[in-house]
Amino acid sequence: MYEPLVKFCGNRSLSDVEKTASSSATHLGFIFVNKTKRYVRPEQVGRWISRVRPKQKLVGVFVDPSIDQLDEVLAFAPLDVIQLHGNETVSEVLKIKESFGLPVWKVIHHQANGGEQMDLFQGVADGYVIDSKVDGAYGGTGIQFDWDAIQSYKEMASDQNVSCFIAGGIKPENIDQLMTHEPEGIDVSSGIETNEQKDINKIQAVMKEVGHHVASFSGR
Predict the structure, then answer these.
(1) Global pTM value
(2) By its UniProt entry, which PANTHER family does this protein fall under (predicted)?
(3) Where are the domains of the chain?
(4) Mean pLDDT of all residues in 82-101
(5) Is domain 5-218 annotated with CATH 1.10.3210.10?
(6) Residues contacting residue 18 through CB under 8 Å, at least 6 positions apart
(7) What confidence tier does 58 reach under pLDDT thresholds 50, 70, 90?
């Protein structure tokens, strides 16, 4: 049965977490990247999680983190997955996995050599997030890439037996188009926000569209 994973990322307040946790998403994401607008401090996240106790798996997003930084975050925030958005090498990813024993997802920015990047991390990354490539940004741009490329990324991830999320510019207005590509996972941040806060109506709209597609897929 087709049931896509859904990650609501960029939670930056107790209110955000309450809204996203109330949904049937599978993952909640938090950005631990300084000087980004969705940056959150680990002690804040720890407090929100203890208040809300979400059923979803928790994902921490990092760019080229040191072991010390990861250690500090994990002391407060009970992460289930580490997501790497930077220029991390295979050896650095292996060191992170060895140090913390957590699954690591690697972000691949869609471009001509995206497939080569996935090949490079085969047997090392536990999952991938395919995001738009925007100069000067690691993610969170709200910009969509060419979704015709999704099938090849899905196939490569399937060959590696790991998950593959699609990110970048997903919102209620285009989720129907995205779902025709049957992504294994979707990763939404700005698309479920109004005035830089998570919007329960947009969250519900995204989940409703996912549910419609799952139902139609099951009915084939």
Answers:
(1) 0.93
(2) N-(5'-PHOSPHORIBOSYL)ANTHRANILATE ISOMERASE
(3) 5-218
(4) 96
(5) no
(6) 52
(7) very high
